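Incident log, support desk, overnight shift.

02:14 A customer reports that sequence design results differ from what the structure should imply. Their input is reproduced verbatim below. On-call engineer (initials T.W.) acknowledged and began investigating.
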C-alpha cells in the first residue's frame, strides 16, 4: 500500500515536471509561490527514493511464488506472470535509472527524459492491471491482523508481518533522510548520501559548467552583446549597459530536475522591462537563446505569465557578487517556479514571440 502511495506521488509530480518542460495548451503552471517547483520536484525525487526499499521488500515477499507449482500452469497463469514481469521490469527500470539520473551517472546509452516518461506509463498501466486482477487478494490481506503469519505444519515460516513492516519502514526512513537534504535544508547535515550538497561557486551547485557548454571564450569576449528582439525592433546591450540599467533583487530558489534545490539572492534587470523596451506585450511568450551551441536546452521558451512576473530577472549578480561564469555570466534567466534546466544561462538573445 505504501509502495503504491510512493509511486502515485512520484508519477503525479513527475508529470508536473514533464508538462512544465513540454507544455500543452491545457496545462497551467503558476508563478507563485516561488518555491512551488522546488517542492513538487523535491517530492518527486524523495518519493522515488523512498519507493526503492519498499520495492525491494515487496519483491522479497513475493520471491517464493516464482517457484510455486505448477511451474507452467494454464494460459491464465502465464498471462498473469507476464503482466507481473512487465510490472517488475518497468518499476526496476524507473527507479534505477531515476537514481542514476539524480547522481548524473549516465551509464545507459539513451536520452533519459523521454525514456523515463514513456516507461512511467508502462509502469502505471501494469500497476492498474495488476491491482485489478489482485483486488480480492488485496482486500483480504488488508483485513488481516498485522501480526498474522503464514503457518505450515504448525510452525511459523519467516518473519512476522509486523517485523517486515517495521523493517520496511525503517529502511525507507533511512533512505529518505540520507538523501532528502538536497531539497530540505534542515536535513542537509544528516543527508550523507545526497548527490548535491549545496557547495559550489557562490554557494550554489553547478550541473553544467561553462567549459562543458563550450562558452568560456564567447561569454568573456569584449564583443559580447545581449540582443532583445520585439515587435518594435531589436536592441543590443553591452554588459556595462545592462549593469547601468535599474536593478532588482529577489530571493529565489534554483531547483533542478535531479531534485536538488537551493535559495539564493539574485540581482538583475526585470525581464518585463526589457520586453517593454522592444514593444513586447505582457501576453507574449519569450524565447531565450544561450551562447551554448544548439542542444536540448540552449533554447527555451518562457510562458507569458512568467515573462511578465516582476520576480523574473535577467540576472547579473548572485548572492552579492558578479555572476560566476559557471552560473551563467555575463547574464542568465532566473524565474520563479521553473526547473533549473530551463533557467537559461549565458544568454545572448531574447525574442518576444506569440501575442
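02:41 Re-run completed on a clean worker. Output:
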Amino acid at each position: 500500500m505504501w509502495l503504491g502511495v510512493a509511486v502515485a506521488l512520484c508519477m503525479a509530480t513527475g508529470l508536473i515536471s514533464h508538462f512544465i518542460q513540454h507544455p500543452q495548451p491545457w496545462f497551467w503552471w503558476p508563478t507563485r509561490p516561488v518555491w512551488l517547483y522546488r517542492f513538487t520536484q523535491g517530492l518527486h525525487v524523495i518519493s522515488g527514493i523512498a519507493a526503492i526499499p519498499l520495492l525491494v521488500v515487496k519483491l522479497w515477499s513475493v520471491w517464493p511464488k516464482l517457484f510455486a507449482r505448477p511451474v507452467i500452469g494454464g494460459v491464465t497463469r502465464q498471462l498473469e506472470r507476464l503482466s507481473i514481469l512487465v510490472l517488475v521490469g518497468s518499476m526496476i527500470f524507473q527507479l534505477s535509472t531515476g537514481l542514476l539520473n539524480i547522481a548524473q551517472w549516465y551509464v545507459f546509452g539513451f536520452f533519459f527524459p523521454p525514456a523515463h516518461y514513456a516507461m512511467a506509463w508502462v509502469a502505471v498501466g501494469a500497476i492498474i492491471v495488476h491491482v485489478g486482477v489482485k483486488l480480492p487478494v488485496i482486500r483480504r490481506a488488508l483485513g488481516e491482523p498485522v501480526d498474522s503469519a503464514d503457518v505450515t505444519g504448525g510452525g511459523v515460516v519467516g518473519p512476522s508481518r509486523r517485523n517486515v513492516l517495521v523493517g520496511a519502514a525503517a529502511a525507507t526512513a533511512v533512505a529518505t533522510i540520507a538523501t532528502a537534504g538536497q531539497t530540505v535544508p534542515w536535513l542537509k547535515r544528516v543527508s550523507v548520501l545526497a548527490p548535491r550538497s549545496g557547495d559550489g561557486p557562490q554557494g550554489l551547485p553547478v550541473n553544467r559548467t561553462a567549459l562543458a557548454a563550450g562558452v568560456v571564450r564567447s561569454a568573456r569576449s569584449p564583443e559580447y552583446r545581449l540582443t532583445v528582439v520585439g515587435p518594435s525592433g531589436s536592441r543590443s546591450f553591452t554588459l556595462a549597459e545592462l549593469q547601468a540599467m535599474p536593478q532588482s533583487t529577489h530571493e529565489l530558489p534554483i531547483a533542478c530536475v535531479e531534485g536538488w534545490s537551493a535559495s539564493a539572492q539574485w540581482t538583475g534587470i526585470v525581464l518585463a522591462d526589457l520586453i517593454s523596451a522592444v514593444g513586447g506585450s505582457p501576453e507574449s511568450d519569450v524565447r531565450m537563446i544561450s551562447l551554448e551551441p544548439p542542444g536540448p536546452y540552449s533554447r527555451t521558451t518562457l510562458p507569458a505569465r512568467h515573462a511578465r512576473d516582476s520576480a523574473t530577472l535577467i540576472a547579473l549578480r548572485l548572492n552579492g557578487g558578479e555572476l560566476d561564469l559557471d552560473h551563467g555570466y555575463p547574464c542568465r534567466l532566473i524565474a520563479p517556479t521553473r526547473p533549473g534546466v530551463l533557467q537559461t544561462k549565458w544568454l545572448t538573445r531574447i525574442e518576444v514571440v506569440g501575442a
